[in-house]
């Protein structure tokens, strides 16, 4: 359980970081969507390790294969299996983890829950699992783009104490992708890269915040009461490794306003659409998208893997000092950007299908 | 869809604020749990309107009936129907809402999604829907208490800019319930009540933060990878009306630390249990509970219902000035406390059942 | 668990035969469907006890209330709660069952599974639970009729050894409802009523077969591979009390034919539609409806409640002779007819919504 | 949708007959179960084509790989990916199917539903999809054997009009596997093999019935009301290709008995267990297993693929005469035997986990 996400556009991921393969089965995809390996690979390349000096040097090409669900370049409506074989596996780097729990990793809890764990590189708890999510998210993005021109852009918004200035209405993919940090604020980016690099050199790590905006989202997505759109978005991104917080619209800062200040007044725009003058709601009201940009933020803790000695215990409970070798991401944020986009896309696509089912206009047609 | 929550301990809520009744069906409850109406009513009384000067004056007793699933004071293992009839319905207060969209309410999005809405008092989007959640949560709490002595305590942690000091390891139910704010910090409480009352008098509202700690949670709850415990907790509380943000453990503040500072070092305590010296993880590592207190925070926006004039549009799109009459909660926080507890209890109980299913020790037994 | 049926048009039933109430929550219903109590009551009246001399004399009006999900005579798209209070409860008739297991009832297995049971009248295992199904089925039928003119007719096809002749292409609701057996073959009906009545007089019971045809079913319903339409239909009717077998199309008899004889050849009819000359497939090929009438049959065992002495054991395991008093249905078939229709309608309606979600034509539109 | 089966022991199959691969992801498997490829391969070898003169001569080794979820020969509790690459693909045999609908196949309905299909060898509707089921069923069987000594045996019970005599209490795996038909009645087997072979030679096919008995099933499995054990078994086997009917216990024949004759009287056996003297209930009462052998039967139609000319239409609707080439199974029954066992095992294993979750005795412990 727990390895399937979504109701109608439903993905099941599998794979440990050092087992045979990782990947995903995508079920419920509509038929006749043009799709090929390049659609998927483009997103995986944004996620893969070894991209720059501020990500882990672990080199994996993460080359994907599509083994079912396609025919003549189109989806069949049947399950799509996307597979990435594991390659750069250095089990020896992890030998010490066979018997020792790394602080703030999943070693101890997996051992406690299952009585067994693949201690090579984090096993199922490795960020490598997100390959399946990003691959599936590429399909969800493509669907949303076709049906509504929806654009989903995540970006690094904060690194430690450095805050970027981002205009969620106008930020572009190019502004985000033109630097290794994936941050659309050039000034802050330069400082942040230096900051990350200096912590990398001392074998330490930093955290920060990834923001995300989804524009041109159809009105009406979200399913009261438990499957409110913000609730499903929260679950989606809080299931990513290292995430510690979630905000929609005004978030925690909005709690310092009064109702008078916080409410988004309605008006009718020139095209006759009902809009809100402000967007503290973050594009969602009553759990349902209102057509304004959906704006959310995700807190990511500093990477737990650091190359400094730390006090911990062995599986047998003995106190030891652990100094991991291996390779590490000094900051997960740049690689978290495509993960956040993928999770947001999966939620929106699933809710689009749900909306067609219940409210698709077929009843009265 | 969207009205069912949980996989194994599964609740389905129903009801509009001004329809015939609201309530819940609880499915999957283990058999032979002693249960009576008083267990449920005690929690509903903490949630009901009209408790104090800082909650809405709407008077509803919210008296519940249990119409199935019990026999001789014990659960049968069959669905438990808990029903609360609606009583203090003043549809006339809402007449204007029949054609006008209240800012930052769900009126406009429900109308857009469904092409129809019960405009009397918020309909399904009313906080009245949470009666079913709180009722079901009372059962979940009882189960957790019996199997593990788990104690779940929510409390008001911030009101607008007023921050309470709370010791999550020691805070007690009594400290929380001995004031109408449900805040364990007496000094801040006095100020906050005055603050809320002053905004109430001007027909305005304020928001804030509800914190929650779950102590004596069994180790091993949570299901990688999508159903990580923090992901399910995030979804649970972000499905509550007016919630805008979620944090687990160190949350957003934790992103300003380095990995060295943030990691929770392990040690073995005197009873031989593996513990962490700090708890920035918030009781969850790798999506699985580690036995430390689970600590989370939920941001609640200021109540959207205010009694001041606001610019908005009618359903037909005409600009109007709306001055709601009706009654309003100047601050949702005190009534949100039992709601947050209920949602946390539902998630933990569901995961407890899931854990028994997959890892209950029966395989090797 | 186990009390919810369907993925998108999803029902949850609740209630014991002698608890406070029985009923159903219907979630996922499309909005703006005209609906009132009479729509539901008409179907409940076909299911209720006390209709004729060949059903149980237990008198229950089974008057339903709709307590949520409706507004101004239309569905809101929110959960619909339909409730029927229990009335004619004679717990004293069942006193003996408190400690004794009735043969071929659910007493012993409920006790073994749950360690507790409501022994008054069968509790949750009572056919009274089907009230919720029939009520929900009335809504599903209404939807299918509106979107595709779908007509679902069940009928008694066999009583013990008496076989009716039924033309599935032409049989009408009137032919079925004009007699207390609900069998469209008048000759067989007269004999069968006498047969049932004679077994009733000796306190015995008989079984038989209910057939069902669904005409004007949209092409394309059914979801390979596990949710094939016939698989979901089989589950649906095999979840009815007393059912022991299921057939689709040619069923068991079809296994005596060769492939040459069994295959349904295709042709194009005058309207240009692709049809099959024969319908051994029963309207479903590859798990997907092909537009031909869906034809199925359900075997119902003779009612387990008989008023003759039978050897059995007490809960403590002592051998006793049990002679039930109470009231009994000498033959479940006439009342099973609306139950079968309801279950078939629920499956088709759910698959209609699923089909809109994945293949609704919105992708390319 | 539709490609996932089970709630807690949950499988997702993928793959077309002539795409890259077929297989399954198994989620929810308990950890620390010893498992290797040989456990899976043994069952796949019983299912694979080319076993004997009465199965299709298509030669596929169906060699499986396990690419995740295992570590040091034990399950991790994480998803298990089992993959079988497609090899003996002769797309040219199917060229004609690109534009022509084979009678009683899924060609026409897939085309109608999805607007696209992989016409090479049946695509997703091919029996090749069942590889994933059989592989997953091997794991379920292993679990059931360990926890309860449960033994699940399917066998050919009827071929066309030839009926086998089978003693469900005593039949053994050896008796079933010692002949190519997988029928424990030697006399009938000899005749049936000749019968099948003669139909094979004329390019025709035959159907029949597969029986199945599950012995030593734990008491208490099955979840009222919709997930009754017989309902889930019915769905499971009716989702197999070519199945047309299902019976549990007395089945259709039981409908000719009176209640007096049909009821299974209880007694206490020498070990003090409550048993039934007869087993017309088929091991299930009230939807819950009672510890008696679970006995069911599945009707399989004659294979739709025959090598004789048949009238049909092209995708464009033109009448044509089709004479398939390709290879065909003259009778699906011998290969259906492991499929039925797998589906029964999956249902029982899933219900075992569900039962542990709700009634596992942890509440009062």
UniProtKB/TrEMBL annotation, chains A, B, C, D:
UniProt organism field: Gloeomargarita lithophora Alchichica-D10
Name the positions where NADP(+) binds: 47, 53
Subunit details: Homotetramer.
- InterPro entries, alphabetically? Chorismate_synth, Chorismate_synth_AroC_sf, Chorismate_synthase_CS
Name of protein: Chorismate synthase
Per its record, the protein catalyses: 5-O-(1-carboxyvinyl)-3-phosphoshikimate = chorismate + phosphate
Task: Cite a GO CC annotation.
Answer: cytosol
Per the entry, what this protein does is: This reaction introduces a second double bond into the aromatic ring system.
Name one process (GO BP) from the record: aromatic amino acid family biosynthetic process
Q: Which cofactor does it need?
A: FMNH2
**Stretch forming the signal peptide:** none
Sorted UniProt keywords: Amino-acid biosynthesis, Aromatic amino acid biosynthesis, FAD, Flavoprotein, FMN, Lyase, NADP
Query: What does the Swiss-Prot or TrEMBL cofactor note state?
Result: Reduced FMN (FMNH(2)).
Its UniProt pathway annotation is: Metabolic intermediate biosynthesis; chorismate biosynthesis; chorismate from D-erythrose 4-phosphate and phosphoenolpyruvate: step 7/7
> Which HAMAP family does the annotation name?
Chorismate_synth (MF_00300)
